[in-house]
Backbone:
């Protein structure tokens, strides 16, 4: 859904745009001098002159991205952030015009903003998806003009996939994603009904009965384990608890140093203790599901 600025905001945007476009162009030597003053001396006056002179680049970039349905003023603000980043990183000694360097930062800042706000569903999380998002419409329009028909078709999708070096499946997914809009889960299914979309969503969470059963079974299994641990010596209990029953596992070497035995001896004691536990628990359980449970709700 497009975001439309109110009339007052539109007037403010136009005033800002006119002011930016009336800023004087900078000669190359003066531009590089301003960049050096800011980078080497922290001269804010030089920074302001440099940035104001190239705000026109932000306006130009914002006009190219206006068809994504986001407020023009927000695009300009994001572009200005990119322009400031460019000014902060620009190295005058490279003998490159600031406009050439800043264009990338401005465009990148706007693209990131568009990807974050175009939809409530995150879009363009990979390089391939970003390339598709910002090029699909242009390439699709070009192909449709050439073919004289609406829609891409398999041949058109294959052409785009080849040009952008992505999978055809990625093209299909992005095409479907851009064709649809965001819909509220509270929207009614039909005009003459009151049922909302969210009422038909499946709830995969366990029901209260399953949760109670899981908690009861967990207590039983904990009791079995404590009884089995009681059959071990104090040293064996420590090894099992430190190696298997706490979040951060203690290494064999650390346990050996603490108990005053070799790492290999700790491994032998651990294996023997595990066998004892298996024998003790084997009396109470018939399958591993009896111990671990099919579902863990606890």
Residues:
């Amino acid at each position: 859904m497009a975001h439309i600025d109110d009339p007052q905001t539109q007037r403010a945007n136009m005033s800002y745009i006119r002011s930016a476009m009336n800023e004087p162009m900078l000669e190359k030597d003066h531009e590089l001098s301003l960049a050096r003053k800011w980078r080497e001396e922290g001269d804010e006056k030089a920074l302001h002159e440099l940035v104001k002179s190239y705000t026109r680049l932000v306006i130009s970039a914002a006009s190219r991205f206006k068809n994504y349905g986001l407020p023009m003023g927000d695009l300009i603000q994001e572009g200005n952030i990119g322009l400031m980043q460019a000014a902060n990183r620009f190295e005058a000694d490279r003998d490159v015009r600031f406009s050439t360097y800043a264009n990338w930062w401005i465009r990148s800042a706007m693209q990131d903003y568009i990807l974050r706000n175009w939809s409530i569903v995150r879009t363009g999380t990979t390089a391939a998806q970003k390339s598709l998002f910002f090029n699909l419409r242009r390439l699709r329009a070009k192909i449709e003009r050439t073919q004289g028909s609406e829609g891409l078709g398999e041949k058109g999708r294959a052409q785009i996939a080849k040009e952008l070096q992505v999978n055809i499946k990625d093209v299909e997914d992005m095409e479907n994603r851009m064709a649809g809009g965001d819909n509220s889960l509270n929207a009614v299914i039909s005009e003459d009904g009151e049922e909302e979309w969210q009422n038909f969503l499946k709830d995969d969470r366990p029901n209260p009965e399953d949760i109670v059963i899981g908690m009861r079974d967990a207590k039983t299994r904990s009791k079995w384990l404590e009884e089995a641990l009681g059959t071990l010596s104090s040293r064996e209990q420590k090894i099992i608890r430190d190696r298997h029953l706490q979040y951060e596992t203690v290494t064999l070497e650390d346990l050996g140093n603490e108990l005053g035995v070799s790492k290999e001896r700790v491994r032998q004691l651990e294996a023997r203790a595990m066998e004892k536990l298996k024998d003790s628990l084997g009396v109470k359980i018939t399958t591993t599901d009896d111990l671990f449970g099919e579902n863990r709700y606890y």
Notes: Confidence is low (pLDDT under 50) at residues 292-298. The longest helix spans residues 208-229. The chain has 14 helices and no strands. The chain has three domains: 7-117, 127-179, 208-292.
